[in-house]
Amino acid sequence: MDSKNPKCAVHKTRKLHIGESDQLDKLASASADLWNRICKWCWRTVSRQDHWLSEGAAKQWFAKGNSEFHSQSSQAVVGQFYDAINSWHGNDHKGNPPRNCSKQWNEVCWKKQAIKIRDDGVLRLSCGRGNEPVLIGWPVGEKPVFVEIGWNDGYEVRATYEVETEDRTTGDDVAGIDLGERHLAAIATGDDCFLLNGGELRALRKYQNQTKAKLDSKIDRKERGSNRWKKLVQSKNKQLDHLDNKITDLLHKLSRKLIEMLLERGISTVVIGELKGIRDSVDYGSRMNQRLHQWAHGKFADYLEYKAKEAGMSVEYIDESCTSQTCPKCSTAKKSHKNGRRFSCSNCDYKAHRDAVGAWNIRKKYVSEKTEEQVSSCLPGVMASPSGVRFHPHLQCSSRSRRKTNGPTGPRQPV
Question: Which CATH superfamily is domain 173-384 in?
Answer without folding.
Answer: YqgF/RNase H-like domain (3.30.420.140)
